[in-house]
Structure formats: structure tokens, C-alpha cells
Design goal:
heterodimer; A: 616 residues; alpha+beta; Glutaredoxin; Cytochrome Bc1 Complex, Chain D, domain 2; 3 domains; 8-stranded mixed β-sheet; two-stranded antiparallel sheet; 20 helices; 27% helix; 11% strand; elongated; B: 458 residues; mainly beta; 5-stranded mixed β-sheet; 4-stranded antiparallel β-sheet; 31 strands; 8% helix; disordered C terminus
């Protein structure tokens, strides 16, 4: 039954160190009164007890008007670190209270026996004799019977166990866990002490801390700093020994709902009209519903994966923290999570462009074994129907209960609202504000559209720019991964600024076989399409590292160097990919240009995402 | 008027207790899994009867789901070295660590992926644990903590360390307190630069990550270590090591907390993912050890002569340039020896820590193709080893040995006593081991208890 603290039949020299801390002066400075809080652990249970005056009272009658310290003992207990410790600590508290009459008036000590058979009211009166004081409210209690006692012990989870001798006779001793309970005036348990934690000084401080509670409500200060709408930490200098964290607290990750519908009606500068399918016109209700679905981790087989676990708002609605994604149960996904900023404009979806509408696309990750792993469409539909917090929402948005079509439509509607532009570049280029960008950005634009030829694929149009031709190209990134021999050594970073060269052979034993990736070819089966991947938009590109379909390039600088060297040569390399002979300055200007493509409403959209409910 | 009298009577009471005081002491040498437990609970100081192995379900093997496996380990039993019970809990939850409540009546076992906490009654019939409660709303109740890891007993409640969060599946996380009844009490976020929560950033890092927790009540100190978020601990190990971005997301900190106030005091730089924390037992030994998984070092967290806590790297583990990957550690309760397992080479290493500032490796033996946990009996004579680290970090193919092995330790050598092949038995990946004994729950004992019980007051 109970965990026992009874004596072992071992002998050794007694030592001071084996007395519980409660017998000695506190060996550390107790935390200052009211500098900490004591959370509510449980409700303090009630029960019928007997006073030394044989009066039958309810425990709750002895609570509420004062803070209570409640201790369970039995009077014949001889375990020095057991009941006598509790009584000794109460005794010390009593002596302290005699000097603090005001505090004394606010505290009641209760010593309750768990041996009603022996500890009658008379026995308790005798036990109490040397402890009671007219200045301190210390009451000694017992119960009428073990039947009356048991529910109290159960409620307080006070484990006791009678100890029997070899003949099966009760020895009069109990093995038990020593527990003392701190109970506030709302009859709630606020602390529990056992042998290593029971000390008069800390108990008194806890009582005073409860008494001062009303005065110590600390408001949470949340700064509206835009830096808060970024990934949890800035790992830019992690390769250096001098790296310092700049981590953001999760409690700072607080947002504010935005008018997303307006963001589909008044589009930010630089975007063309929003393509919306006729059978799924956008409404505020659909966006709100789609947003709720997007952040709902329950939309996966084991309730751990929402769309947002890979499309993380503050990480550019992609994932900065890994090259290629992982799905449910940590299953490997071959490709980098693409951003969903401005996804409404994509005519092809997925890196290989295999899907043609958002409404359809959303079902692929929901059902993929290595993403959200839902076993069937019907499973998802039924699950949503079973969740109380979705009650009426589909009916409100679609005048229908959830089904395959409208689940896709709702999520697609939310995604179509994540339009982001009106960047510094847009201000300069489309609104003709010449001071909106630096000269480096302007130079970068010249390189982008001129010498480097980036805009052949990352196109600009009249009056708007999506920076994508919505086509697929082979840059050699995919070819390299499929065809190049694995190097014998691999560099692994083990700490800030600390790298280790490891034999690839040694890693093979802990690596699953990597899935191959042939890009567009997998869809068309045309050898000319090997390793072709979709041209991504460059809007908000500074937010979506690492880059390329496999996340193999960690920074924009690396990407530009990759193109400057002419990609990686192979049979079907896109003819546009060739050595560019850019200078360091030109490459720097390109980076500056790309950084100028971050939309002006990113903080607003991320803050909105923070405000979205997360289904767990 | 009463004061003097009551003091006298108190002294009498104390005197009367003198016999009991001595009988409470445990004579040296004592060694310590029992030393990896919360020190403030009943201990099995004699022969344990059972080992409970929190086992991960494996796709394609047996019933594929997580289970609590009970192994009979009493040499006097006819079932010695055999699996006597297996309790499947449904799903693969990334079963990981487990811990008893302070009254040792219940075993709490966490799932790092699904965030469920399974509570087993181990006292009604220690040979046949019963699943009595499953906490399924840990994430929402805790305010977004993911990856319940260590379940550590405090008086009347459990301190549960998180590894991640439900926002970005990264490493920022918290410790979460639950009452023994299974109700959420409070969440303590690990300090970050954005909210240091009163802590001092002693070095360069305040990552907000978490892993293990240990406490030293006599010094009012609590320590937490730091691993990595869901994205990494669930990722294929090889894929992760090859992913430069992922490798930037490991913890580099140990945090010292005010135990009573539950407030972070100091953040130490301990680079390279400090994992398990084990504190010394001797009341005068105010220090704890941790080992860094990636940088392969033993770190000492100690209180200096000015009463200030400090951190120091004190030894290398194997050849750090080979990333041996130190995983579980176990301290003997005489504070003389620290067992350190290294996953990659499957070895257990004994370090002489009599001088905690200069640990010296004095023993080394290969346990299997991979090894993770080590649990020691109270007397230090029996060491149990298990194989699984994380489902997607375990070795693949033939190297994926899954086992529970018992070795005896005579001070000089380890001798294998039994080995259970968890693949052959169709069980899964063997992870954490906790001990059970009839002696803890005397009234249920079918025979005379062979275990002796005591408590320590470190």
C-alpha cells in the first residue's frame, strides 16, 4: 500500500546529518516573502474530525477564516524524521508566532492523528499539553474511527500503513509518508512539504507570502517590438564561438487578430488582382474557419501536427530550422517546407508543380503517411465533426456540414489571405518613392534584371511583380543530390563555433536510406524533366531560409554564389543557368535587393497567426 | 509559561527517538537507478523484484505500440530474467522516461511525441502494473509545452520537464508541475533573453531549452538541462546530423533555480546538449554532474566556497572527435563512481569521481551495438542496461539491437546475468527501467520481504 519510511534493521552511528533539515537552522536563505508565488495544487478536502474537547467538527469549519497548516501524525510515532519532525516544526512556528501576534491571528495549526484507535480525544489532549498556547491557534484533532479517517487520508493522499510483526500482530507503528499541507483561506492546498522540505522558516515565509498575495499581482508586459515576429532565436552567428543567444520568450509570442478579409480586397502594393475560384469566393467566415483548421494539431492521426507545424508563421510561413521537413512521428519528408505567403498566385503547387488548386492541395499533406498521416478523407471529416469547437462553423461558412470539398475551401481561403507586398522595393518601384530603398538595392535591381538575369525566371510585370514565371527549371541542385557521390567526411556542428569531421560511414548506421528526388520527372516521366523544380516567388525571401527545394543552401549569399558559378552542370541543366561573373559588390547588391522584398504587413500577418487558436 | 515546559518535553521526545535515529541510517558503502530517482521517496535498498521497462512500439514488430514491460529480476524467482507482463497502451507515443510519485504508488511515463502521460498503479500488484489514468491534455493545460520528459517526484506532486512547444516544435520549453492526482498546477518557463525571469545570464546563452531536472533541497537548488525540440528529437538521426540548420538548434545551457520559489537564478553555458543531471548524495557534496551529448564532456555544476553555483567542464568522454554520444549516466550513492553510457560505440564507462573536479575513466566495456540507459541497484552490485535512445535515432538494420541486460558489478568487472532480446520477444525498443519490489508495499507481499527500506536525508 503505502510507500514506507519505516526503520531498517541496520545499525550505524547516529549523525546530525541524518536529522531532517527542519531540526537545524535553515542552510540557505529562504526566498523573500512575496517574491514568489504558490500555485493552487488542489482543493483541501473536508471530513469529520474530533477535537480534544470531543467535539465533532468538519475540517472545513477549521479553514477559511485563517491560513491553515495541516499535519498528519500519530502520537506514539517514534520515527524522528516522521511525526515528531512535523510537531517540532509546528512548535518552532508557534514560538515564532508568539512574537508576531498579528501573524498569529491569521494562522491555524492543525495536527490530525491517523491512529484513531489509540489517539482518542483524551490521548490527543495529553499529546497536546506541552504544545498548546493561548497565543497561538494550534488544535489537535483525531477522528471517530478508521472509517471516518480513511476518506480524509484518501483525499489528501496521505499514505499510511500499519506495521505488523511476524505473528501478524499490529505493532502499534505505522509506516507513512510525512506530509504537511499549507491551505489558504479559499480552502485550497498551496504547498505540500515532506521531510526534506519541512522547515519552520520556509513555512512561515510561505504563510506570509499567501497573506501578501493581494498586493503582488504582476502584470505581464508584452512589447510590440517587431523583432518578436521572428523565429525563436537568431542563429546567424552560430558558426562563431562568440555566438550569443537573442532568444524570444514564448510568452512574448502574443498577437492581435488582423482583418484578413480586407487583405484579400485591398491588396498590398505590387500584387496583381487576386485569383479566386468562382466556386470558392472568399468570405471572412471562411478565412476564420480556415485559420482555425490551419493551426489545429488535431488534424493529424496522433493530434500532434497542424499545417502550421511546417509552415511556421514567424519563420516565413515555412521552416527555418531544418533543411527538409519532418512529419508525424518524425518521418522524413524529402523537401523544404515552401512558404505560403502569396500562395494564392501560384498556378502550380508543390515543388514539382503536381497540383493545380489550393483546395485540392491541402489534402495531400493531410493524407500523406509522412506528413499528417490521416488514414482517410472520411476520417478527417468525421474527426472535425466530432470536435465540439467546430460546431456550427462549417454551416455558417458553407451552409453545409464539413466535407472534403469545404475543408479544402476553408483552408485555401485562409491561405489566400496571406498576401504580403508593399515592400520597400514596391514603394520605390511602383510608388516611385526614390528614398524608399538604398542605392545598393537600386543597383541590386539592375543586376537582378541585367547582368545576373534572375528576372528571366523571377519575373516582374507591368504594375506588379510576383518574381516567378510559374515554370519549372533544372538548376543542378537536384541533380547534385541524386548523382554526386557522398563525401567520405561530413562536417557536423556540435556547439556554437564547434565543428567535427565525421566519417560518413559511421553515420550510415544511424541513417535511414535517403529517398531519391527526381523533381518534375516524377510527374511527367519525361527524362527531360529530371530535377526540374518550380520557380518560387521571391517576395519575403529573406524570411524563408534555408533555400532551394531541398533546403541545401542556408543563406541568400550562398544562393547567389550558387547561381554565379552556373549551378551544377548536367544534361538537362536549364540554359539560363550559366556562370554570371558577378563581382562581390554585385552579389552584395543582389542580397540587398532581395532583402528589400519583405512585405510591409509581415508583422501584422504573423501577429494575426499568434492570435489564432491552436487546437491541441 | 508553556515555552520552557514544551521545550523540555520536546527534548524528551527527541531523546526517545534516539534509537530510531540510528536505525534509520544506512551503513556504508551504499551505491546507487535507485540513485537516479528523486531522493525523497521510498527506496529499495535490497533486492528489487521487478524492472519496469518503458518500451517503444516499433512499426512492423509485434503489436507495434508502446508498452510497459515487467521483468522478474529476483534471482529466487522461478521467472528470473523473464518478461512476466506486458501492458500495451495504444499508439507510438515516443515512450521515453518515467518516474514514481513520492509515495511510490504510481509510475508516470511520458510520450515525447503525443505528449500523453500514462499513469500506472504499481502498488496494488507490483507484478502486474495497471494503467489507471492517461493525461491527454498536457499541451493545452501547460500552455503549449510539448515533449513531457522527466517525471520527477516532489512532495505531493510531479515536476515534468518539457522538451519543446506547440508553436514551432523548437527547443523553447518549460517545466510543468502536476499534482499527484494528475491535475496541472503551474508551468515554469525556462528563461530566455526575452524573459530572463530574474535569472542572470552568466555567459553567452539563454536558450530556454529543457531536458532533465534534479533538486538539492538542502541547498534549495534545482537544476535543469537542455536538449533540443521536437523537430530534432523526432528526426532521423543521420538526416539531422547532416542538416546544418537543425544542428544549430541544440541546448547549450544549464539553469540553476531557486527550488522553493521555482525561480531561475543563473543560466550557465554548457555547450553541446547537456542531458541527464545527477547530484551527489553526501550531505557535504554540493555538486551535480551532467554530460553533453554532442561535445562529449562531463560537466560539474558545483557550489563554490562563497556559496555561488558554478559550472565547469571536468573531463572528456571517450574521443569527442568521434561523437561517442554520451547518453544516460548513473552516480553511485557513495559519490565515488559515475557510469556513463555512450550510444554510438555501445559502451559503458566507469569514471572515478572521488575528485569531482578530475573524473578519471577507470573502466570500459561494450554492452551491445547500441546502449542508452543504465540503472543501478541500491547496493551498486547490479547494473541494468537498455538499448533504445529515440525511435528515429536508434541504429538501423542489424545494428538495431533492442534489449534489457543485467550485469553484476564486483568493483572490477561486469558479468552478464541475463539478456532479453526485445525484438525476438516482439516487444519493441527498450528504454527506461524503473524498479519495483513487494517490500515497498508490505501488506501485499506474498512472502517475507527481502528488501530493506530506508530513507536518506541528503
Amino acid at each position: 500500500m503505502a510507500g514506507m519510511f519505516s526503520a531498517a534493521n541496520l545499525s550505524a552511528e547516529p549523525a546530525q546529518s541524518n536529522l531532517a533539515p527542519g531540526y537545524s537552522p535553515l542552510t540557505f536563505n529562504a526566498p523573500t516573502v512575496a517574491s514568489y508565488s504558490l500555485p493552487i495544487i488542489d482543493k483541501a478536502a473536508d471530513g469529520e474530525v474530533l477535537t480534544t474537547a470531543k467535539q465533532l467538527v468538519h475540517l472545513h469549519e477549521l479553514m477559511g477564516d485563517k491560513i491553515v497548516l495541516l499535519s498528519f501524525i500519530y502520537s506514539t510515532c517514534s520515527d524522528v524524521n516522521g511525526c515528531p519532525l512535523a510537531t517540532m516544526v509546528f512548535h518552532k512556528i508557534k514560538r515564532h508566532l508568539q512574537n508576531e501576534p498579528e501573524l498569529a491571528g491569521k494562522l491555524r495549526l492543525l495536527t490530525l492523528s491517523f491512529n484513531p484507535e489509540h489517539d482518542t480525544p483524551e490521548a490527543m489532549r495529553e499529546y497536546a499539553q506541552s504544545f498548546i498556547s493561548d497565543k497561538v491557534d494550534w488544535q489537535f484533532l483525531t477522528t471517530q474511527s478508521e472509517q471516518k479517517l480513511q476518506p480524509i487520508l484518501d483525499q489528501y493522499q496521505q499514505s499510511i500503513q500499519k506495521v505488523y510483526d511476524e505473528k501478524g500482530e499490529f505493532t502499534g507503528t505505522f509506516s507513512h509518508i510525512l506530509r504537511v499541507y499549507l491551505i489558504d483561506t479559499d480552502k485550497q492546498v498551496r504547498n505540500i512539504y515532506s521531510v526534506s522540505f519541512l522547515h519552520a522558516d520556509t513555512l512561515i515565509n510561505d504563510v506570509k507570502t499567501l497573506l501578501s498575495e493581494a498586493h503582488t499581482q504582476k502584470p505581464t508586459v508584452v512589447s510590440a517590438d517587431n523583432a518578436l515576429f521572428q523565429a525563436g532565436d537568431n542563429k546567424q552567428n552560430y558558426a562563431q564561438l562568440g555566438y550569443q543567444t537573442q532568444s524570444i520568450a514564448l510568452n512574448q509570442r502574443q498577437g492581435k487578430a488582423a482583418d484578413l478579409y480586407a487583405n484579400t480586397q485591398q491588396l498590398p502594393l505590387g500584387l496583381p488582382p487576386l485569383p479566386v475560384p468562382q466556386n470558392n469566393l472568399i468570405t471572412a467566415d471562411k478565412i476564420a474557419l480556415g485559420r482555425k483548421l490551419f493551426y489545429d494539431r488535431r488534424l493529424s492521426l496522433n493530434n500532434t501536427f497542424s499545417c502550421a507545424m511546417c509552415h511556421i508563421p514567424e519563420q516565413g510561413f515555412s521552416s527555418n530550422e531544418m533543411a527538409t521537413a519532418v512529419g508525424i512521428e518524425g518521418r522524413s519528408v524529402r523537401r523544404n517546407s515552401p512558404t505560403i505567403y502569396n500562395i494564392a498566385y501560384a498556378t502550380m503547387l508543390f515543388h514539382d508543380g503536381r497540383e493545380n488548386s489550393l483546395e485540392q492541395q491541402v489534402w495531400a499533406p493531410l493524407l500523406a503517411h509522412n506528413e499528417m498521416a490521416n488514414p482517410s478523407i472520411g476520417y478527417v471529416v468525421d474527426k472535425i465533426k466530432s470536435l465540439a469547437d467546430y460546431e456550427g462553423l462549417f454551416e455558417k461558412s458553407f451552409a453545409k456540414e464539413p466535407d472534403m470539398l469545404n475543408i479544402g475551401q476553408a483552408i485555401a481561403s485562409y491561405e489566400r489571405s496571406l498576401n504580403s507586398a508593399n515592400s520597400a522595393f514596391d514603394q520605390w518601384f511602383f510608388a516611385n518613392k526614390s528614398d524608399a530603398v538604398s542605392d545598393a538595392v537600386k543597383q541590386g535591381y539592375q543586376v537582378f534584371t541585367g547582368k545576373a538575369g534572375c528576372s528571366h525566371c523571377h519575373t516582374l510585370d507591368k504594375g506588379f511583380a510576383l518574381f516567378t514565371d510559374n515554370q519549372l527549371h533544372n538548376t543542378g541542385i537536384g541533380y547534385r543530390e541524386s548523382m554526386h557521390k557522398e563525401p567520405e567526411k561530413q562536417t557536423v556542428q556540435v556547439a556554437p563555433g564547434v565543428f567535427i569531421e565525421v566519417d560518413s560511414q559511421d553515420l550510415s548506421v544511424i541513417s535511414e536510406t535517403k529517398a531519391n528526388d527526381l523533381g518534375r520527372y516524377e510527374i511527367t516521366q519525361d527524362p527531360q524533366d529530371r530535377w526540374k523544380y518550380k520557380t518560387p516567388s521571391l517576395r519575403n525571401i529573406a524570411l524563408t531560409a534555408p533555400y532551394m527545394h531541398n533546403g541545401s543552401l542556408s543563406s541568400l549569399e550562398e544562393v547567389i554564389r550558387f547561381y554565379n558559378q552556373g549551378g551544377v552542370g548536367n544534361e538537362t541543366l536549364d540554359p539560363l543557368i550559366k556562370p554570371l561573373n558577378l563581382t562581390e559588390t554585385e552579389m552584395g547588391e543582389l542580397v540587398a535587393f532581395l532583402h528589400a522584398l519583405t512585405g510591409s504587413n509581415v508583422s501584422e500577418l504573423v501577429a494575426d497567426a499568434y492570435a489564432a487558436p491552436v487546437g491541441n | 509559561m508553556n515555552t520552557k515546559k514544551s521545550i523540555n518535553s520536546w527534548q524528551t521526545l527527541l531523546k526517545a527517538c534516539a534509537f530510531t535515529v540510528s536505525s534509520l541510517l544506512i551503513s556504508a558503502p551504499i551505491q546507487a537507478d535507485e540513485t537516479c530517482q528523486s531522493p525523497y521517496m521510498a527506496k529499495i535498498v535490497g533486492q528489487e523484484d521487478f524492472v519496469y521497462v518503458w518500451t517503444l512500439g516499433m512499426e512492423g514488430l509485434g503489436d507495434e505500440q508502446d508498452k510497459l514491460v515487467t521483468v522478474d529480476v529476483n534471482p529466487k524467482s522461478k521467472n528470473y530474467g523473464k518478461v512476466i507482463n506486458s501492458l500495451s497502451v495504444g499508439g507510438r507515443n515516443e515512450a521515453h522516461h518515467s518516474g514514481f510519485t513520492d509515495d511510490r504508488k504510481y509510475l508516470w511515463a511520458g510520450g515525447l511525441d503525443t505528449n500523453k502521460i500514462f499513469i500506472f498503479d504499481v502498488h496494488t500488484d507490483p507484478a502486474k502494473p495497471k494503467l489507471t489514468k492517461v493525461i491527454k491534455d498536457f499541451v493545452s493545460k501547460s500552455g503549449g509545452v510539448v515533449g513531457p520528459h522527466t517525471t520527477y517526484a516532489l512532495p505531493g506532486r510531479m515536476m515534468i520537464t518539457g522538451l519543446s512547444n506547440n508553436k514551432d516544435h523548437g527547443g523553447r520549453t518549460a517545466m510543468v508541475e502536476y499534482s499527484n492526482k494528475g491535475e496541472h498546477i503551474v508551468t515554469h518557463w525556462t528563461p530566455t533573453d526575452g524573459d530572463l525571469r530574474g535569472a542572470v545570464k552568466t555567459g553567452s546563452y539563454a536558450d530556454g531549452y529543457g531536458y532533465d531536472v534534479r533538486v538539492l533541497p538542502r541547498r534549495n537548488a534545482m537544476f535543469s538541462s537542455s536538449f533540443t525540440g521536437w523537430s530534432n528529437y523526432m528526426m532521423d538521426f543521420g538526416k539531422m546530423l547532416g542538416d546544418g540548420e537543425a544542428m544549430k538548434r541544440f541546448g547549450n545551457t544549464v539553469v540553476q533555480w531557486d527550488l522553493h520559489a521555482r525561480q531561475p537564478k543563473k543560466i550557465f553555458d554548457v555547450p553541446g546538449a547537456p542531458l541527464e543531471i545527477r547530484c551527489a548524495w553526501n550531505p557535504n557534496h554540493n555538486y551535480c554532474f551532467t554530460t553533453t551529448a554532442l561535445t562529449s564532456k562531463i560537466w560539474l555544476i558545483y557550489e563554490d566556497d562563497k556559496g555561488q553555483w558554478q559550472s565547469k567542464a571536468v573531463a572528456d568522454i571517450g574521443d569527442p572527435s568521434k561523437i561517442p554520444l554520451p547518453v544516460d549516466i548513473s552516480i553511485q550513492s557513495d559519490d565515488q563512481m559515475l557510469w556513463v553510457n555512450t550510444f554510438m560505440d555501445g559502451k559503458t564507462r566507469g569514471f572515478d569521481i572521488s575528485d569531482p573536479f578530475n573524473p578519471k575513466q577507470v573502466f570500459e566495456q561494450k554492452i551491445g551495438k547500441q546502449v542508452n540507459m543504465v540503472s543501478s541497484s541500491w547496493d551498486g552490485k547490479r547494473l541494468y542496461y537498455s538499448s533504445s535512445l529515440l525511435s528515429n535515432w536508434d541504429k538501423k538494420g542489424a545494428d538495431n539491437e533492442q534489449y534489457l541486460k543485467l550485469f553484476s558489478w564486483d568493483g572490477k568487472k561486469l558479468t552478464e546475468k541475463f539478456s532479453i532480446d526485445f525484438i525476438k520477444e516482439k516487444l519493441g525498443r527498450a528504454h527506461q527501467m524503473r524498479f519495483g519490489a513487494y517490500s515497498l508495499y508490505a501488506s501485499k507481499s506474498p512472502e517475507k520481504p527481502v528488501g530493506l527500506l530506508a530513507k536518506l536525508n541528503p
